[in-house]
């Protein structure tokens, strides 16, 4: 009778409600919005997306413009940042804004905990793990929502140890960095840009970021088995030993194509091209190329004779950083490890990749014999991604396991 009563109570109980804090920027807000939509559609979870007033942009608003029922938005009040130097790193600004907004977040969580829906779990995005302390203080289950690769997460988790055991700049490290929980060795120069200069205040913040991650009960990561098979296995072994919280591969999480986007002239043009004939060129939402590199890239793509679609951002000679360093390492690893085995890097001592090299790599990738393996791997990854995201796929099952833990926490 007691079991029957518990089952009846669960059937009439409101769905679990989670709170997700996102840092500003389209590369953070958009994945959080898509993730919340999936929680609602596939698992019956309601979500409050919490944004910062500081550093928000029109891109933030557009990503949150068409949320489904069950997903709402709350915005934390603006906090002062005028004491930071004008040239402060954008990550410094974001992490500082998160830290200074924690009292407002605490008030919001307390209010939501008193509501009928309550709060089953709190999620912080990749630049907001300082907020996990507030959820821990309030006794709320907590996770990190990580919209990038597990390789990238492993590198940030290792930042405190790297800072403790090395001296000088990452780019000067004589040997490849072997990250615990990561199957891909990498050069120090391949680590994320905010850890490349020890003298910059952002370096210390990144060390703290790596420590704050350990407050999580788990990591919800935008990856899937065939993309990072070896890294998922290595990270899982460390989690089993209690070194790191467990990682749940719930990807790929990509935005659905809206009706307006489908009508864009680029989509119309793409529909008229032969299958597999267009090279897509994009350097992330936060990276920028120098004026000279932009010109060399444009000339090289044209000289390659290949069809291409390029997402062009305004060049910047002040801050010309390839923010996608870790993703580049993962994607250019050997096909056996999940990558495609192709990379193009600025050579030691050089300033830019010249147009001749751009053209040669573009041709090889699209029509060359050596590029054939990369093209086959891309097709395999596409099929694997579709399988992972299927209703009975591993991504859906992994997230269902996390949701079950949230439901238990609510009871």
UniProtKB/TrEMBL annotation:
<keyword id="KW-0328">Glycosyltransferase</keyword>
<keyword id="KW-0808">Transferase</keyword>
<dbReference type="GO" id="GO:0016757">
    <property type="term" value="F:glycosyltransferase activity"/>
</dbReference>
<dbReference type="InterPro" id="IPR002213">
    <property type="entry name" value="UDP_glucos_trans"/>
</dbReference>
<protein>
    <recommendedName>
        <fullName>Glycosyltransferase</fullName>
    </recommendedName>
</protein>
């Amino acid at each position: 009778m007691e079991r029957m009563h518990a089952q009846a109570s669960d059937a009439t109980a409101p769905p679990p409600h989670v709170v997700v804090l996102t840092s500003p920027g389209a590369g953070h807000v958009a994945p959080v919005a898509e993730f919340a939509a999936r929680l609602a559609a596939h698992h019956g979870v309601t979500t409050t997306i919490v944004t910062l007033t500081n550093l928000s942009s029109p891109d933030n608003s557009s990503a949150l413009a068409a949320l489904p029922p069950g997903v709402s938005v709350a915005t934390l009040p603006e906090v002062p940042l005028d004491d930071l130097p004008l040239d402060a790193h954008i990550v410094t600004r974001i992490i500082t804004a998160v830290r200074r907004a924690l009292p407002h977040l605490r008030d919001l969580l307390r209010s939501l905990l008193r509501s009928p829906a309550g709060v089953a779990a709190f999620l912080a995005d990749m630049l907001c793990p300082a907020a996990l302390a507030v959820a821990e203080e309030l006794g709320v289950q907590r996770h990190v929502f990580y919209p990038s690769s597990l390789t990238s997460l492993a590198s940030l988790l290792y930042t405190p140890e790297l800072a403790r055991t090395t001296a000088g700049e990452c780019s000067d490290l004589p040997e490849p960095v072997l990250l615990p929980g990561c199957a891909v060795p990498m050069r120090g120069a391949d680590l994320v840009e905010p850890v490349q200069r020890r003298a910059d205040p952002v370096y210390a913040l990144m060390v703290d970021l790596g420590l704050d991650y350990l407050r999580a009960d788990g990591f919800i990561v935008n990856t899937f088995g065939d993309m990072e098979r070896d890294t998922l296995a290595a990270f899982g072994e460390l989690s089993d030993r209690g070194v790191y919280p467990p990682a749940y591969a719930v990807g790929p999480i990509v935005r659905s194509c809206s009706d307006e986007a489908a009508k864009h002239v680029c989509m119309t043009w793409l529909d008229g091209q032969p299958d597999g004939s267009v090279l897509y060129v994009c350097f992330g939402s936060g990276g920028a190329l120098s004026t000279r590199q932009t010109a060399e890239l444009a000339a090289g793509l044209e000289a390659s004779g290949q069809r291409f679609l390029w997402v062009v951002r305004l060049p910047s000679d002040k801050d010309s950083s390839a923010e996608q360093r870790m993703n580049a390492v993962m994607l250019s690893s050997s096909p056996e490890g999940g990558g495609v085995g192709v990379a193009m890097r600025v050579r030691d001592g050089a300033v830019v990749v010249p147009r001749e090299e751009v053209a040669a790599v573009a041709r090889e990738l699209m029509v060359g014999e050596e590029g054939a393996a990369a093209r086959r791997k891309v097709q395999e990854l596409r099929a694997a991604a579709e399988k992972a995201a299927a209703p009975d796929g591993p991504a859906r099952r992994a997230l269902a396991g996390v949701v079950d833990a949230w439901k238990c926490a609510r009871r």
